[in-house]
From TrEMBL:
Known EC number: 3.4.21.4
BP terms from Gene Ontology: proteolysis
MF (Gene Ontology): serine-type endopeptidase activity
Positions of the Peptidase S1 domain: 50-292
InterPro entries given in the database record: Peptidase_S1_PA, Peptidase_S1_PA_chymotrypsin, Peptidase_S1A, Serine_Proteases_S1, TAT_signal, Trypsin_dom, TRYPSIN_HIS, TRYPSIN_SER
PROSITE patterns: TAT, TRYPSIN_DOM, TRYPSIN_HIS, TRYPSIN_SER
Protein name stated in the entry: Trypsin
This protein's record includes keyword Calcium: no
Pfam families cross-referenced by the UniProt entry: Trypsin (PF00089)
PANTHER family documented for this protein: TRYPSIN-LIKE (PTHR24264:SF20), TRYPSIN-RELATED (PTHR24264)
Signal peptide per UniProt: 1-41
Length: 292
């Protein structure tokens, strides 16, 4: 089922045309916003399915989790606003900007008492799985809001997730998954049309890891950000049509059985000239490990 978002003003972290980040509520009761997949440059939908994507479940991908706050984003779709990835029994990685004041509406996440990580819930309209309180959050102090480099945060959960609900992170020695042409999967709950139609259930789309030069050309440095190959990953489809999009922030990019990227930023959604930009997990895995 798709939930149309009513005409409530919504701000993005950067220009609306340029951000594929956490969706920011301009009203406290904004319906839950989510991780879009495979929205083409010209919005299109067929029978309410993600164009270029496919359904999946948290049974097969138990490490895909949602960040949620009904207080901030409303009760629909469990109040989801960002994605995350379980990399340890009590450790979730996500995007640093998901914990900014612009996203949460408060300077300190502790002032949003219903903030939860939702695990094991394929359908956000249901009640399956667990809603786990946060014990601690480390936000990368070197996150650069101008270039978007270092866009990572580490959540420590108040209780352990079920056995097997984690995925390994790519490390500095893992170069193969970052080779141009490698197939990767991006996951989430989000806009399937580019116009605010959000599915309740988890979906996935297959994209390609692209050469760094592609994103260096697309993002030389402007209001959206600057592509830096040492800390970012370029991924998409050469002709456009598959991508992460608004609200996907912090969700996983997976290749060769490892987490290689976190949804971070980009211009528009699924546009041929503007691939998605992801936090390069191999560049931050050491930092994450320090907070596990």
């Amino acid at each position: 089922m798709h939930v149309p978002i009513p005409a409530i003003p919504v701000l993005f972290r950067r220009r609306a045309a340029g951000s594929r980040r956490a969706l920011i509520a301009a009203a406290a009761l904004l319906p839950a916003l989510a991780v879009p997949l495979a929205a083409p440059a010209a919005p299109a939908a067929a029978n309410g399915v993600v164009v270029g994507g496919a359904p999946t479940t948290t049974d097969s991908e138990p490490w895909v989790v949602a960040l949620a706050s009904r207080q901030r984003f409303g009760s629909g779709r469990s109040g989801q606003f960002c994605g995350g990835v379980a990399v340890g029994p009590r450790t979730v990685v996500t995007a640093a900007h998901c914990f900014g004041q612009e996203a949460l509406g408060v300077a300190d996440w502790r002032n949003l008492p219903d903030l939860r990580v939702i695990s094991g819930r394929t359908d956000l309209s249901g009640t399956a799985g667990e809603e786990v309180p946060l014990s601690d959050v480390w936000v990368n102090p070197d996150f650069d809001a101008t270039t978007n480099a270092g866009d990572v945060a580490v959540i420590t959960l108040s209780q352990a997730l079920p056995d097997g609900a984690v995925i390994p992170m790519a490390g500095p020695a893992d170069t193969a998954p970052y080779t141009a042409g490698t197939e990767a999967q991006v996951y989430g709950w989000g806009d399937t049309t580019g116009q605010g139609a959000y599915p309740d259930s988890l979906r996935t789309a297959t994209v390609d890891v692209l050469a760094d030069t592609v994103c260096e050309k697309a993002y030389p440095g402007d209001a959206d950000g600057r592509y830096l190959r040492a800390s970012m990953v370029c991924a998409g489809v050469t002709g456009g049509g598959k991508d992460a999009c608004q609200g996907d922030s912090g969700g996983p990019l997976v290749a060769d059985g490892k987490l290689i990227g976190l949804v971070s930023w980009g211009t528009g959604c699924a546009e041929a000239a503007y691939p998605g930009v992801y936090t390069r997990v191999s560049a931050v895995s050491g930092l994450v490990a320090q907070h596990m």
